[in-house]
Write a structure and sequence with these properties.
Chain A: One of its GO terms (molecular function) is ethanolamine ammonia-lyase activity. Chain A: Pathway: Amine and polyamine degradation; ethanolamine degradation. Chain A: Its cofactor is adenosylcob(III)alamin. Chain A: It is found in: Bacterial microcompartment. The complex is a heterodimer. Chain A is of the alpha/beta class. Chain A has a domain at about 145-450: TIM Barrel (Alpha-Beta Barrel). Chain A contains 22 helices and 16 strands. In chain A, the strands form six sheets. A four-stranded parallel sheet of chain A has the order 7-6-5-12, covered by helices on one side. In chain A, helix 18 (about 340-355) links the parallel strand 10 (about 325-330) and strand 11. Helices cover about 35% and strands about 15% of the residues of chain B. Chain B has eight helices and eight strands; from the N terminus they run ββααβαααβαβαβββα. Chain B has helices at about 35-55, 60-70, 85-90, 95, 100-110, 130-150, 170-175, 230-245; strands at about 10, 30, 80, 120-125, 160-165, 180-190, 200-205, 215-220. The two termini of chain B are about 40 Å apart. The chains are: A alpha/beta, B alpha/beta. Chains A and B meet through helix 2, helix 11, helix 12, strand 13 and strand 14 of A and helix 1 and strand 8 of B.
Amino acid sequence: MAQTYHSTVGSRHYHFKSLAALMAKATPSRSGDRLAGVIAESAEERVVAQMVLAELPLTTFLNEALIPYEDDEITRLIIDDHDIKAFAPIKHLTVGDFRNWLLSDHATPEVLQSVRAGITPEMAAAVSKLMRNQDLILVGKKCQVVTAFRNTIGLPGRLSTRLQPNHPTDDVTGIAASILDGLLYGSGDAVIGINPATDNVAQSVKLMRLMDEVIQKYQIPTQSCVLTHVTNTLEAIEQGAPVDLVFQSIGGTEATNRSFGFDLATLAEAEAAAQSLARGTVGNNVMYFETGQGSALSADAHHGLDQQTCEARAYAVARKFNPLLVNTVVGFIGPEYLFDGKEITRAGLEDHFCGKLLGVPMGCDVCYTNHAQADQNDMDNLLTLLGVAGCNFLMGIPGSDDIMLNYQTTSFHDALYARRALGLKAAPEFERWLEEMQIFQDVSTHRLNDQLPAAFAESLRHLHKEPRHAT
Amino acid sequence: MPPDETSPIVVENPWERLRAFTDARIGLGRAGVSLPTRKLLEFQLAHAQAQDAVHCLLDVDGLACELQEAFELAQAPQRLHSQAQDRAMYLQRPDYGRRLNEASREQLQTAAPSTPRVDLAVVLVDGLSALAVQQNAKPFLKALYRQLEQDSNAWEMAPLTIVEQGRVAIGDEVGALLNADAVLVMIGERPGLSSPDSLGLYMTWAPAPGLKDDRRNCISNVRPAGLAMEEAARRLLLLLKEARERQLSGVKLKDRSEDNVLESTGSTRNFLVAD
């Protein structure tokens, strides 16, 4: 049944026992593939695998499933939803030719959009393994994915941010303080999104109401999300909570998602429930997904695939449910999957490219943990590269320090650096709001107001009356 | 148009006083749109300290002694070790950190036939912050034991165990070998810049090797400046009671410890939306 692959270089013969093995060995080096035991055994074997992979027709991926169709609902989703008509312009290509085509002047943003539904995650993963970082950036930039809820995200020349006001005890005043800080630094157009410290329905509903009240009072053209389990958000909707976006962490295999406690039917139910609330004003993309290389292996659910291919399969899950935002949390999982700044950088660029190629509104949590070999300089580099690549959104957190999740991500300052250095702007509706609220003196040159804007000065006057919350 | 010459190079944020309400790095001020030098260096120092904390070792003997004295235990907590020999291996091989080494397994198996079925096994694991376990294990256990004693159900406890170079899932193996209906893992969470001492609590009903995350319930950030010991113990006990009643844990068992916040209309009250 499954084909094997061979090649000879000089006197050495290389044998790849399956398509999955060939893909894994063609993958640029990273610790997670070493942990899984699927990594190339030498630098030469890696390049030989890339050469063999380059010769494979793209149709190979339609004929040979990496995880059997019968065993995995994501394989079924990928195969059943494959659009033969959209595939037609590229169906004659090999993986190597596909790279050339993507870089060529034939592949305009419009053409790339029209072939999207004909590209499977495995094709995207395969071609990415042959691409250098600059290729991932250049093609990623050509693939535009625009979504909308209360504002429009992913337009060319725009870079949005998720304002992430996490607090270790979900203290409402502490959270409000971080929201204010973020808004006054121009952050929050992608979403104001809280990871709750206590993950239950009641707590989530409380945080949803908190953010809804802020958004309404200041008429902010943005949306909120509590990053709790999808089943919690479904319960919150039933209770009548103000749910803008439904969150879920997703992976690229059915078993990964089962370990997260959901399946595709759950996501379909959640999307329908949130859309029925009709809370969007300029669009109705209601899902927010997070992904990250290594999650399938971490759940022991990778079926012998390399982690980047598993990750690309997660984007098939994402695109099925029309998300507003998909966020690859690239350095959160730890050094056993992405060891250092170099591996994190590569993974961030791969994820952005694969996601965008497949039509997913990719953003990136450019981040690292304190047990990884990475620092702020690595984050500056990836942030800049993703800004150049046209990434839809980044995280924004006070001073890069998430005091609840205990990791470092990009700060409000970092996002302004990227906007200033690369000439990028916030989402148009949000940008207008920043100017109207006088948060910026001049939003076109990214000049913040040195004075406290009037509406917020008024709010701060309430502060002396504020009791200090204990929880 | 450049700013006039009298305006300062570093712009302070007039909402600095909000720092009284959170440890988040808010109100940092800015040079242009960038971090002022002092704030930059403060961050670098915190990162350096957190990196150092990851590599600090648990003083197992000291902790075992302390716990035996504090709780007047007949026997000292059992000392166990994962398959990860050292920190370098631990960081790169989480699979080793999830399983006991052979000596530890034998140690528990030898004791097992004489171990009757118990309700709960508590397993202390160093995880990514030995400091968290070293400092917070005793005060949390104090709160937990007190609440367990006051509960209407009796809670038969397995002997305490301490695991070195362990990850969360190792508790399932320990719990199974100790014939426990439920296992509580108290583990050092990855150190943050502002919280090198954060303890995580993970509860599994019917622990067995190989269980996935969807079978566990988690309470995070237990430390003096985070979730208070008494409150963490209260939430855990609610989870334990419901797990025992419904004979399950994880995603199917929702944490309902704060369901009452729905009743309190003022609970989202804060300065941003105060009228």
